[in-house]
Structure formats: C-alpha cells, structure tokens
Specification:
Layout (H helix, E strand, L loop, with lengths): L14 H5 L7 H8 L4 H7 L4 H7 L2 H11 L2 E2 L6 H8 L4 H7 L11 H11 L14 E3 L3 H7 L6 E4 L7 H4 L2 H8 L3 E5 L6 E4 H10 L7 E4 L2 H4 L30 E6 L4 E5 L6 E8 L2 E6 L9 E5 L5 E4 L3 H8 L10 E5 L3 E5 L4 E6 L3 E8 L5 H7 L5 H8 L9 E2 L15 H4 L2 E4 L24 H4 L22 H14 L4 H12 L1 H14 L20 E3 L3 E5 L5 H18 L13 E10 L2 E6 L7 H4 L17 H11 L4 H4 L8 E8 L4 E2 L9 H20 L7 H11 L11 H5 L3 H15 L1 H8 L5 H4 L2 H4 L11 E2 L5 E2 L5 E3 L8 E5 L5 H7 L19 E6 L6 E3 L5 H8 L4 H11 L16 H4 L2 H11 L4 H8 L9 H9 L27
Parallel strand pairs: 1-5, 2-3
Antiparallel strand pairs: 3-14, 4-5, 4-6, 6-7, 7-16, 8-15, 9-14, 9-16, 10-13, 10-15, 11-12, 11-18, 17-18, 19-20, 20-23, 21-22, 21-23, 24-28, 25-26, 27-30, 28-29
Helix pairs in contact: 5-6, 15-20, 19-20, 22-24, 24-27, 24-29, 26-35, 34-38, 37-39
Length: 988
C-alpha cells in the first residue's frame, strides 16, 4: 500500500479513518471483541482498513482464536496464525509466498506496545534476591506442624534428594522416553487441549507468547505410570484425608508442571482451600505470596451470589511482575522467594500465590487435606456465598458496602471485558491501589482486622441453607455426592479424628441440625437413640439418610419442601399399591415401618405422623399447595408429581427449588434395614459371576415393576393437572395433540414435559460443558425431534385402530449402584437365587463361614423417592451407565431376564411417518439421555472417551445404545398380573 503523507507535518493519524465509530473504544476492548469472532471473520475484518489490519494480525489474537476453537491435540506451526489457518485448511504457505506483510506508519498503541514487550522480553537480566521465605533443611514433622503448617510458607531442601526424578526429569531425558505421550496443556480456556511432549518442546523453543502455554497435567500418573515411580510424597505431607476416596471419585490432587521462561501461574488461592507442596526438579521459579484475606493489587474476586462460585480476575504472572510489582511500596510487597532445583515450597491453606518461571522449568506438585486445613476445606464447600468472599478477600467482603459492583482498572488486562460478568449474578470484591488501605493498622495477615480463623469465618455462613437443597458451586473441586461420601468414610474409617470430622460436617452439611432431627424422630417412634457410629448421615444419596441398628431413617430435604413431599407422597402411594397386589417385587423392597413430618415451631421440634393422604395442617398454609388439592386423598401422589415435573421442566435451579423457603419442615420415612452392603461398596470386589447374577436380578425385578398397574387417572384429576400446569397455553407443537390425536392423557403430559425440556436443551448442555463436545451441542436441536408424539410410535392395528407402541408404567428413575443392596450368599439367599433364576456357586452349600467361597447376591432395590410414570426405557439409563458402566454383556443379560418388549410393533409394520428413526430404541434412549435433568451426557463421554471426537449424535447413539436395536422382547409376554385389569388405554 502506498502512503502519501507530508514528511514535514509528520505521519497522519490513521485511527479516525481506520476505526470510524469504534474510535471511542480503547484498544484493549477492541482486541477483546475481536477474540469473540471466528478466524474467518477476523481475516475478513483485516481487509476493512489499515488499523483493522494491524489489530487483526496480532499473534495474541490468533492464540486466543486457536484456543477458543480447538479441543484435543494441538500441533504448533511456528506462529498462531499459521496454526489456525492450518486448522481451517487454508494454504497459508502459498499466500505468504505471494504477499509480504504490510507495514503502516501513523499508528501508535501503548496497549499493543506493552503486550509486544511482554511477548519478547527475557528474564535473564532480571535480578531477584533470595527472598524472605524461610529456608529449612529436612525439618521434623513436629517442627513443621508446630511452626509452618496452616501458618506460613517455607522452603525445604533435601526432600527430593533420593528421588530418581532429581536426575531424570530433564527436557532431554523426558523427550527421549515420553516424546509421543500427550499431556494436558494449561491456558485460559475451558477447552481441554493436549500436546505430545515432542511437539510441546518444539513449541517451547520458538514461542514468543506473553503467557506461554505450559504442561499442567493431573492425569500424568495414569497416562505414564512410570513417572509416579520417579518421586514419592515427602514425609512432611503424608497425611491426606482425601486418600479414603476411590481413585475415580477423588478430586485432582497432583500435577506435572513443565513450562518455558515467562510462563507461570497467575494469582490464585488453591481449590477448596487445600494446602500444597511443590518440588522443583529443573530450572528456577519466582514465587510471590500474600496471607489469606490480602487480595493482591490488580486482582478482582468475583463471587456468584447464586451458588458461591468464586472466580478470580487477574493479570498474567509476567504482567503482574512487570506492571504492578514495581508500583508497590516496600510495606505492600508480597512474601517472595526464588525456588531452586531440589527445593520444595509449602503453600498453606488460603494463601494467595503467583509463580513465574525464570527459565524452562519442570516441577511436581500435590494438594492435600490434613488436620490443619480440614475445617477450611469443609467451609469452602458449604452452601452460600458470603463466607467464600470473606475467605478469599478478607475484610473487603466483610460488609455489604464493601462487596460492590465496581470496575477495577486492571491495566491492559484483556480479561477485564469477560462476557461472564454480564451473565452471572455476582458480587465483585474490589482491590485497592498500591498503598491504599482502609486503615494503616493491619494484622500480621496483612488485612485490617482480618483473622483467618475458621470459627470467625463460619459466622458468615447462611444458616438457613444446607448442603442438600442449595445450588452446588461449579468451582468446587469435588461433587456433592462425593463430598458427602468423603465425610462418611472419614467418620467410619478414622474414628480417632471424629471430633474434627464432626466439626467439618457441621460446616458443610449442617450435620448438627439433622442429628437433632434424627434424635426427635427416634424418640417419637420409641427407637433406640443414635449411637456415636450413627450420628453422621451416609455419604451416598441426595438426602440425609441414617443407618440405625435395625432401621433406616431418611429425611427428605433435597430441592426444598415441595419436591420432598412429592418424593415421599409418590413413594407411599407405591408402597400402598404393593400391599394390595400379589407382586414378587415386594419381597425385594425394604418394609416401611413409619413415615411422618418433622417441623420446627418456636424453637421446638414437633412430629406429625403422615401416610401420604390428605394435607396435614402444618402444610396447608404453604403457598405452593392450591386450595383444590387440600382435600385430596393423595395430594402428593404420582399423578400430582407428574404435574410437578411438568412445572419444573425447563426451569433454572433457583426456580425449581422455590419452596426451599420452607426450611423448617421435613418429611421423613423409616424402613427396615437390610443386611449386607450396597453395590457401590462392593463394585471392585465382586466376581464376574456376581455381576451377571445382578444383571439377571435387575431384569426380573424391573419387569415386576413395569408390570404393576398405576393409579387411575380420571378426567377430573387430569383437568386439574391441565389447569394448574397451564397445559392449554403451552406453546409447543403438541399444544392440541390430545384433541387432534386422542393421545391417552398419561402420555399427553409425558410428551408435553419432554417438549419443555427440549426448549432450553442447548443452553443446558453449554452450561454443563466439558466433556460434552461443542460440535455436538450445536447439532442437538436438529437431532431431537419437535414432535414427541412420535416417541409413542403410534400404529394402526388390523382393525384400523390407532395403538400406542409403548406401555406407560411405573419407573424407578434412579437405579444406581447405591440403590442396590447385596447380601453374602448363604442359606438365607438360596430363595433369592431360586426366585430370580440366578446361577449359584455350587461350592457354597449354605456354608456362611467360608469367606473364600462366599459370593454376593442382590437382595433389595432401595430408594423409590424418584418414582414416576413414563417410558420404561428411561430406567435403562442409570442402570446401564452407573451400575453396568457401559458393559454391553451385562445389558444383554439384563434384557434376557427382563423379557418385556420396550416397543410394540404391528404385524403389518405400518408405522408413523419418519418411523425409521422413531423405531430405533437406541434413538429413544439417546434422546432421554440428552433431555435428562442430570448430566447423563457427562457420564457417557467419560465412559466412552473416543466419543469426544464424534461427528454426530447418531454416532454416539449407535456406540452407546446400539445393542437395544437387537432386542425385540418376547412376543405375548406383555400381560399384567392375572388378578389385575390393565389401567392403560391401549387403543383409541
């Protein structure tokens, strides 16, 4: 391009002509906007003007474009623009040979200049002293516990002297042995990206990135077990309470870290307020640390008011050292040190830290929970948000006036314009400028009046919230069920620390409140008082469940009172039905001993027995109970529950638990305790024969369940459901389907509920994110039909009458490994084997004492609180994915015992239009997985890792559920118990 400017006047400013109306925006905001575009759009925009050409050819922009679109293996092509063009299949080399990059005068940008400087600076000439972190040589466990653990960081030498890694973890040695191994890469993107080690080393040698990619892999030990043999946990850090969890349930805790000069970790507090040790094997690292509650300059803490999730907005490590550190007064500078090879640094719970690699470095680190930080970890996972803000930001979050929607000018930080600020309901805890504090008097923690004491921090907990019916923070390092299981395993497995575990359980689970409720229930029903072993609820399940000596007491709390009432009401209605029919299923369901409601009134617990009929006075005043249902015999029966499921479909978490305001009323159920263990505790120990027997047992019992008649749905009941659910005004394709097609009422509400779930399916999958492939999320609306009536597979019989190809039945909805009970096979289990057709081990002969010959037999199905009425295929989802873990052989064994057809066909094979797709059972199951209220897809893409690269939902469907298409059921087997009349309309 030819530039005609008067040299006497100097170069013309290109901004007005090059940017137009965008001239009012700062460069950093324009660059942030460009990152939201596609690579092809950026290429087109670069042709608009000379200024846009400059902005659109910045390497940091193309780095972001690459990371925002790539998922999986990455191969760096020498520049990020070349890498993206390679991914887009654009022949960049031809274009490069034909045209040289353009250069323009008349354009200056301090933002771009500073970023360019950070990209190309080297740290060799920077002078760093040894710092002020204490250095010790092989201190004793007692000295470490007394002087450092939970108090302050320390550098310890000599802990890695005997490690093979001390000599073998060099770039050359690792390249020779693990060159083709793919390791996970850390970068500012939610996508999982990996690089082979040889590709990563090549990238390290030529890159000029402001924030270079670095290996940060928590699965390195599973990918290359040999690396675990090269080091061992130092003796100072042996205590780790997370080690009671199974490997697949334990949160990430160890990482291999490899990075070039200028890379590092920006300011953060370790997840769940855990402590950490980090041993450097190669290179040098510069550390900066602040005590808990002292937010570093340039950092903003975001606290989500809905679930307490904490996000940190921070400059890169290099940017902070170059742009912020020089501005600090001496009294405001962090605690800092330079870590040398062979040294191990300890970072206590809650401490802010930032790490900068001064040269190519290799390190290993692990996080842990011990007696010093256990209560803080439990506090971090408690529901609510204020206490999390205080833990991270100290007194900046102490009162409402300090948690404010303010914008901090983080110099040249592209993440300042993150769109998440516009979509999340959150508080932003501001930081101060250098030297600016609320008071000149500060504690040793560096924050005015702030004390990192768990008892003080616990004062900020919301006492009306509990762990069971509050939104779960996406940032927590462990799931809800795993967290409860962890506490229960500590309670059972480490009785010596029960006082400490109880304190943690009271913080995270509000265990004291549930324990007091338990004692009141026991006293009312003349049951023995809970022993010390029985004080803590079991870890599995979604409600507080207590295992007593002869019974099980379950308190319904999950998702609030309304959900709890429908859970217990439908369960009691089901048990009442079992008492009236001669179904063998009742022999494999725990006996109900009592049920009722416990509520807190004027500080006193009161008990009211309740069998599910009528509306007790304590409930009648609840706003969610309409007047017309207050006199119903079963106001919370399964059909009312179906109405409730319809109302909840498509709602956000907060909307769905609107009745959580009634936090002082809880239904409960007492059942007889089964002997033995749940399958979740036995999975890794049972034999293959036991697994096959379990599959056969479940086939028989689900057949018995699906054959049961359901309560009649009369016209008046359905009229109430339509009026209360607003069905006539539903804006879906099935709005008038009952009138047009005379679809049975029980199926009508079923398909309307599916239609509501379909409306927001894309946003729900986006929210769940990884490991669900984004390419599939984009295709989900196209894959799932809008006409859910076709799910019923309506066909004409030989008389020309329309018939429904499915049978509506009771469904358990939650057949998972913690809801299956197993007993040691012996004399008492012979009847089970006889009744279910299980293959017995001939060596048993009723001998219950020979441990080596014992096997485990399934005896009971537990927890029917998720009961519903619908398509039996729905029950296959948790069964196949959770109990069978995708084992096709177990699914075949189950179906061989189940025998009922899951899709009835006409003899003439005359089906609805588009029936090829709707005639596949695999399609039905896959759609139910996608529309499921739980993240079932996360389990699918974890079990079948290869499906993360799937190109279509049809591919996923075939791999996961293809076996169902081979199943035809057994002709003539779809009959009800001889003493009952079918209640399901079969023709119309």
């Amino acid at each position: 391009m030819e530039i005609s400017e008067s040299r006497a006047l100097g170069p013309r400013d290109r901004r007005p002509d090059g940017l137009g109306d965008f001239l009012v925006l700062p460069d950093e905001l324009i660059c942030a906007i460009l990152e939201s575009l596609s690579a092809r759009d950026v290429a087109r925009l670069s042709c608009v003007s000379s200024v846009m050409y400059i902005l659109c050819n910045e390497e940091p922009l193309w780095l972001s474009l690459c990371l925002n679109t790539l998922s999986g293996p990455l191969e760096y092509k020498g520049s990020w623009k070349k890498t993206v063009l390679h991914l887009e299949h654009v022949p960049y080399e031809c274009d490069e040979a034909r045209r040289k990059p353009l250069n323009f005068d008349g354009f200056n940008s301090m933002f771009l200049y500073r970023r360019l400087y950070r990209c190309h600076t080297t740290l060799d000439g920077f002078s760093f002293d040894n710092g002020n972190v204490e250095r010790k040589n092989k201190i004793t466990v007692e000295e470490f516990s007394c002087d450092y653990d939970g108090k302050k960081p320390v550098l310890v030498t000599g802990l890695a002297d005997a490690w093979p890694a001390r000599h073998t973890w060099t770039l050359d040695h690792l390249l020779q042995n693990y060159g083709d191994t793919a390791f996970k890469i850390s970068q500012r993107s939610s996508r999982k990206i990996s690089m082979t080690f040889k590709d990563y080393v090549s990238y390290m040698k030529v890159q000029h990135d402001e924030d270079p990619l670095y290996i940060f892999d928590h699965k390195f030990g599973e990918v290359e077990p040999g690396l675990l043999k090269d080091y061992s946990v130092p003796y100072l850090f042996q205590e780790d309470f997370f080690d009671v969890l199974d490997k697949d349930k334990r949160p990430p805790f160890r990482w291999l870290i490899i990075g070039p000069q200028r890379s590092g970790a920006s300011w953060h507090v370790d997840p769940a307020l855990t402590s950490a040790w980090n041993t450097l094997l190669c290179g040098r690292k510069r550390w900066a640390l602040y005590p808990p509650g002292r937010v570093p300059i340039g950092v903003t803490v975001h606290v989500n008011k809905e679930d307490g999730d904490v996000n940190i907005e921070t400059p890169t490590s290099l940017q902070w050292w170059l742009d912020f550190y020089p501005l600090l007064a001496d009294e405001d500078k962090p605690i800092e040190c330079t870590q040398m090879p062979g040294e191990t640094i300890f970072v206590p719970s809650g401490w802010w830290h930032c790490v900068l690699n001064l040269e190519p470095s290799i390190a290993v680190t692990q996080n842990f929970v011990n007696s010093k930080n256990f209560e803080f970890v439990c506090l971090d996972m408690a529901p609510g948000y204020r206490h999390k803000g205080v833990c991270r930001a100290g007194l900046l979050a102490d009162d409402e006036g300090s948690i404010e929607d303010s914008t901090i000018n983080i110099l040249y930080d592209k993440d300042e314009f993150n769109s998440s600020d516009m979509t999340r309901k959150e508080k932003r805890v501001r930081t101060f400028k250098p030297g600016e504090y609320q008071s000149s008097e500060r504690t040793s923690n560096g924050a005015q009046g702030f004390s990192y004491d768990v008892n003080i921090l616990a004062m900020y907990l919301d006492e009306e919230r509990d762990h069971y019916n509050s939104p779960w923070s996406a940032g927590n390092c462990i799931g809800q069920r795993e967290m409860r299981e962890w506490l229960f395993k500590l309670w059972v497995g480490k009785p010596g620390i029960r006082e400490l575990v109880w304190k943690g359980a009271c913080l995270a689970l509000n265990a004291g409140k549930w324990s007091e409720s338990l004692s009141e229930v026991c006293a009312f029903h003349n049951l023995p008082s809970p022993t010390d072993d029985e004080r803590l609820p079991v870890g599995t399940g979604s409600n507080p469940v207590y295992l007593m000596s002869n019974c099980v007491i379950k308190i319904f709390v999950e998702e609030g009172l309304e959900t709890s009432l429908y859970g217990l009401g439908a369960e009691l209605e089901f048990y009442s039905l079992l008492g009236k029919v001669n179904s063998p299923l009742k022999n494999h369901i725990p006996e109900v001993l009592a049920s009722g409601i416990i509520y807190l009134e004027n500080g006193t617990y009161k008990i009211l027995p309740w069998d599910g009929n009528r509306v007790p006075d304590v409930l009648a005043k609840c706003s969610f109970i309409p007047e017309k249902v207050k006199g119903d015999a079963s106001p919370f029966g399964v059909w009312r529950k179906k109405q409730f499921e319809y109302r909840k479909a498509g709602m956000s978490t907060n909307e769905a638990i609107s009745s959580a305001e009634y936090t002082r009323i809880w239904p409960y159920l007492i059942t007889k305790r089964c002997q033995g263990k749940i399958y979740a505790e036995l999975r890794d120990t049972v034999s293959r024969e036991d697994e096959l027997n379990l599959a056969s047992f479940l086939g028989v019992q689900l057949r018995n369940l699906h054959l049961l008649p359901y309560p009649p749905l009369n016209i008046s009941t359905f009229s109430d459901i339509e009026q209360e659910s607003g069905l006539p005004s539903t804006n879906v394709s099935m709005e008038d389907v009952s009138i047009k097609s005379n679809i049975p009422a029980e199926w009508d509400i079923f398909i309307r509920t599916l239609s509501k779930k379909k409306k927001d399916v894309s946003s729900r999958l986006i929210k769940w994110g990884d490991p669900i492939p984004s390419t599939l999320i984009e295709k989900v609306d196209q894959y799932i039909s809008n006409d859910f009536a076709k799910f019923l597979y309506i066909f004409k019989d030989e008389n020309g009458l329309n018939k429904v190809g499915k049978n509506c039945s009771w469904i358990h909805s939650d057949i998972m490994d913690d809801n299956i009970h197993m007993e040691l096979c012996g004399v008492n289990s012979c009847l089970i084997a006889k009744n279910t057709g299980l293959v017995k081990n001939g060596s048993l002969n009723g001998d219950g004492d020979n441990a080596e010959s014992k096997t485990w037999c399934p005896s009971h199905i537990l927890d029917f609180s998720n009961l519903s009425i619908g398509d039996p295929v729905y029950d296959l989802i948790p069964l196949y994915l959770d109990i069978f873990r995708g084992d096709c052989c177990l699914l075949k064994r189950f179906l061989a015992s189940y025998k009922l057809p899951l899709l009835r066909r006409s003899s003439q094979d005359e089906y609805v239009e588009g029936g090829d797709k709707f005639g596949r059972l695999s399609y039905h199951a896959m759609c139910y997985c996608i529309l499921h209220e739980e993240n079932v897809l996360g389990a699918i893409f974890s079990l079948w890792d290869e499906l993360k690269m799937a190109k279509s939902w049809e591919e996923v469907e075939q791999v996961v559920w293809g076996e169902l298409n081979n199943y035809k059921g057994f002709p003539g087997s779809y009959t009800f118990l001889s003493s009952l009349e079918p209640t399901t309309p079969t023709s119309f």
